[in-house]
Specification:
The complex is a heterodimer of chains A (155) and B (619). The longest helix of chain A is centred in the first third of the chain and has 11 residues, at 18-28. Chain A is globular. Chain A has 155 residues and is an alpha+beta fold. Chain A has a single domain, classed as Alpha-Beta Plaits (2-Layer Sandwich). The relative contact order of chain A is 0.24. In chain A, 17% of the residues lie in helices and 22% in strands. In chain A, the strands form four sheets. In chain A, strands 1-9 form a two-stranded antiparallel ribbon. A two-stranded antiparallel sheet of chain A has the order 3-4. Chain B is α+β, with helices and mostly antiparallel strands. Chain B folds into three domains: 3-208, Aldehyde ferredoxin oxidoreductase, N-terminal domain (Aldehyde Ferredoxin Oxidoreductase,  A, domain 1, 4-Layer Sandwich), CATH 3.60.9.10; 248-414, Orthogonal Bundle (Aldehyde Ferredoxin Oxidoreductase Protein, subunit A, domain 2); 424-617, Aldehyde Ferredoxin Oxidoreductase Protein, subunit A, domain 3. Chain B contains 27 helices and 17 strands. The longest helix of chain B is centred in the C-terminal third of the chain and has 23 residues, at 531-553. The A-B interface holds A 11, 14-18, 21-22, 24-26, 28-32, 34-35, 43-45, 47, 49, 105-108, 124, 127-128, 130-131 and B 1-2, 4-5, 73-75, 102, 109, 148, 151-152, 155, 160-161, 183-184, 209-215, 218-219, 221-222, 225-226, 229, 233, 242, 283-294, 298, 304. Strand 2 (30-31) of chain A pairs antiparallel with strand 13 (213-214) of chain B.
């Protein structure tokens, strides 16, 4: 089954945090971008917006790191899913994720993790984004560009 | 999400007494919430409660209120705003400024909906808000830093995930038009709220919000948000605002011949400040919390902005035609924490006084002339640090008492507050009535009635305003109704914590109307407000502000006026050439407006209405 993934187009992101807030409202019924699974890391003084979102990796470091086994990779859909009820809040997944895509709910001591809104056609973050900075696309359709490139060294 | 979130009251106030270093917590009763909603409305309610009418605004007796709107922080579109309210040290009447950015929502996530700050701290302090508590902390390490440095240092010390609102050197030195700043450019700019914060030795407010804000109908609200986002983004003005921001208005006003130039002695200026020229200096457009419009520029000179207001107040009005220089001044003023509108107006005014001989080179120390960039930079720095002539100009409109009443004729201000909007209002009469009657002084964000220049069909305007209005912007008839309508809905949008750019009637008829607010408040909070309820709230807030202004400074008809230049000197150029405000026509507009408001001929509230408001404020 072809797998879809949420991609960010950073140049279009204006830093409004509606995606993260909508994620929180949709999943938890309360508003606070901090409780959303997507995070817009913005620094107005350093002048950047960086979209931290789950890639649902082929070989997910969070699954390997989880001590209680509450994060699993669903073989059928390819989604990496997190069971809140069994989570003990050890934050190993938070540390292991290379993309900063697992967040902490410090009040309830559980991890916050993207489930790509399984019960919806399109994830809520993609749907609410006012600028189209978030897109849901087939992995196969995305050109295979390396995510990190070597720094250019002047001669 | 967690049980304790749902138990929180809908509006929790923290009453911080800086003199005694105590904090009390008090929920706003629901019946008061129904009458004043939140934001500006509830701020006015508490301002009235804590008001000491004849106290010096810069004394510990003044109260500083930072209040979020009812929808601030929810997924309602453009719900990132809150209001900062006090008695203004600049005008002596209501000081109220609305600010975007991220601090307001963060404050609500930290469990505090409103801060009521009393007294004066013995040493520099900042307030730290988290998990429903307010801590008073030492800020001596941050005193003296500019707005950007203060916030960067606080984020370095406390972690990058906090949101901050602070004052810069201008606020610390109690410049009478200092702003409260958040982020690089967001400002509660008007009325010298920053000076009041400085007078309390309060350097900053810091919030870290870990609580979730309960939403009555989460999925319903998200669906509503998506519907409204699609609706608003179809508006042409919204689309252009998102592309180039407010500078889009510069062209239009300049073509009309209504750009305040050289302290309103002229009305057209160079097209080097057109939107496309400004946009060469823009890296990216940004937005405040929850915004679907994104009108804020990240400029290439290290700051954010400029807005249309800055372009003119720190451009045309002081004779700066170079785009780079204007943006550099914009960044400087924001970093120092000064109000752009007031700063630009006073600079233009001082230069004209210098030209006319009221100010001499001996008194100033150097020559003041339009277009002198180096002089402007120096003077702006001096104002913020209260050095030399800057120390004098930092007194703002209070200088009229010193320089003589004839100098007031050249000051583009009403009720002691300089005009914010760069638009010369001699052409659009409703606009003139709006700035004359605005509760905080010459300000366009109280009513800005400019829909009529969009050439909308009469049926559409009648539907908007509830009665037929004259489509000719030059006529004096039916303008009272236009201002009355705008006043009311803008008061409501300020109570909600939503941006005016998303508000019906501000610059597009395709925006959030009363019905949308009813639906949003129902879905977000469960509270029901009908359209007439909301209109009543608008009237109530405007009336309460009028009452406060009357109590503190006897504001009535004599104060609802315009700068002398608008009455006496016809506009000199372009399409608007020859326009001026006819005193009889103006009086007729005032009569119309007072009649709709139910005020008497002198612009005062009826005794019955005063009694009604007083009964409400004892709730």
């Amino acid at each position: 089954m072809p797998q879809k993934q949420i991609y960010a187009r950073p140049a279009l992101c204006t830093g409004c945090r509606i995606c993260a807030n909508a994620c929180s409202v949709y999943h938890h019924g309360v508003a606070n971008p901090r409780l959303g699974a997507i995070n817009i890391r913005q620094n107005l003084f350093e002048r950047y917006e960086f979209q931290e979102l789950c890639r649902h990796c082929e070989n997910p470091p969070c699954v390997n790191a989880c001590m209680v086994g509450c994060i699993t990779k669903d073989d059928k859909t390819g989604l990496v899913l997190h069971d809140r009820k069994r989570c003990v809040g050890c934050w190993m997944c938070v540390m292991a994720c290379p993309y900063g895509a697992v967040k902490r709910d410090v009040l309830n001591k559980v991890a916050i993790k993207c489930d790509q809104c399984r019960d919806r056609d399109r994830p809520v973050c993609v749907e609410v984004c006012p600028t189209g900075a978030l897109v849901l696309d087939l992995r196969e359709d995305v050109p295979q560009e390396p995510f990190f490139t070597e720094p250019t060294i002047a001669d | 999400m967690s049980d304790n979130d749902l138990a929180r009251p809908m509006a929790l106030n923290a009453i911080v007494n800086l003199t005694d270093e105590t904090v009390e917590y008090l929920a706003t009763p629901t019946e008061v919430l129904k009458k004043f909603i939140g934001g500006r409305g509830l701020n006015m309610y508490y301002l009235y409660k804590y008001l000491k009418p004849h106290a010096d605004p810069l004394s510990p007796d003044n109260v500083l209120i930072i209040g979020t709107g009812l929808l601030t922080g929810t997924p309602a579109p453009n719900s990132g705003r809150h209001s900062v309210t006090c008695i203004s040290p600049e005008s002596g009447i209501i000081g109220d400024a609305n600010i975007g950015g991220f601090f307001g929502p963060e404050m609500r996530f930290a469990g505090i909906d409103r801060l009521i700050i009393l007294g004066r701290a013995a040493r520099p302090v900042y307030l730290y808000l988290t998990e429903g508590r307010v801590e008073i902390r030492d800020a001596s390490a941050y005193w003296g830093l500019t707005c950007n440095r203060t916030q960067q240092q606080l984020k370095y010390d406390l972690g990058t995930d906090v949101e901050i609102e602070c004052i810069g050197p201008a606020g610390e030195n109690m410049v009478r038009y200092a702003a409260v700043m958040s982020g690089v450019k967001n400002a509660a700019g008007r009325c010298g709220t920053g000076a009041v914060m400085g007078s309390k030795n309060l350097k900053a407010l810091v919030a870290r919000g870990t609580y979730g804000l309960p939403i009555a109908d989460p999925r319903g609200l998200l669906d509503k948000y998506i519907e409204l986002k699609n609706y608003m983004q179809k508006s042409k003005v919204t689309q252009i605002l998102g592309r180039v921001g407010t500078p889009l208005l510069y062209d239009v006003s300049n073509y009309l011949g209504a750009i305040r130039t050289h302290n309103s002695q002229q009305t057209v200026f160079f097209d080097t400040l057109n939107a496309e020229e400004v946009h060469k200096y823009v890296d990216k457009m940004l937005s405040c919390y929850g915004c679907v419009i994104h009108c804020r520029h990240r400029n290439k000179l290290g700051g954010e902005g400029p807005e249309y207001t800055t372009e003119v107040m720190l451009g045309a009005n002081i004779g700066i035609a170079d785009t780079y220089q204007m943006i550099a001044l914009n960044n400087l003023v924001n970093d120092l924490g000064l109000d752009v509108s007031s700063t630009g107006t006073y600079l233009g005014w001082a230069i004209e006084l210098f030209e006319k001989g009221y100010l001499t080179e001996d008194a100033v120390g150097y020559a003041l002339q339009f277009g002198d960039y180096e002089m402007m930079r120096r003077l702006i720095e001096d104002i913020a640090h209260r050095k030399g002539f800057g120390n004098i100009l930092a007194e703002g409109s209070q200088l009229v008492n010193q320089y003589g009443p004839q100098t007031a004729d050249f000051l583009i201000a009403v009720k002691g507050l300089p005009q914010s909007d760069p638009h010369d209002v001699r052409y659009i009469k409703a606009f003139a009535l709006g700035i004359a009657t605005s509760s905080r002084g010459a300000d366009h964000l109280r009513s800005r009635p400019t829909l009529e220049i969009l050439d909308l069909p009469p049926a559409v305007t009648e539907k908007i305003y509830g009665a037929p209005v004259d489509p000719n912007p030059m006529s004096y008839t039916s303008k009272g109704r236009v201002v009355y309508f705008s006043d009311n809905i803008y008061a409501v949008v300020d109570c909600m914590g939503i941006c005016k750019f998303a508000c019906h009637g501000f610059n597009s008829p395709r925006n959030l109307d009363y019905d949308h607010f009813s639906a949003l408040t129902k879905l977000a909070t469960g509270l029901e407000f009908s359209k007439p309820d909301l209109e009543q709230v608008g009237c109530r807030v405007v009336d309460l502000e009028r009452l406060i202004n009357y109590r503190v400074k006897g504001i009535d008809r004599k104060d609802d006026t315009l700068p002398a230049r608008y009455f006496d000197e016809p506009m000199p150029s372009a399409r608007a050439k020859g326009s001026f405000i006819d005193r009889r026509g103006f009086d007729q507009m005032l009569d119309d407006y007072y009649l709709l408001r139910g005020w008497d001929h002198d612009g005062r509230l009826t005794p019955a209405r005063v009694q009604e408001l007083e009964n409400l404020t004892t709730l």
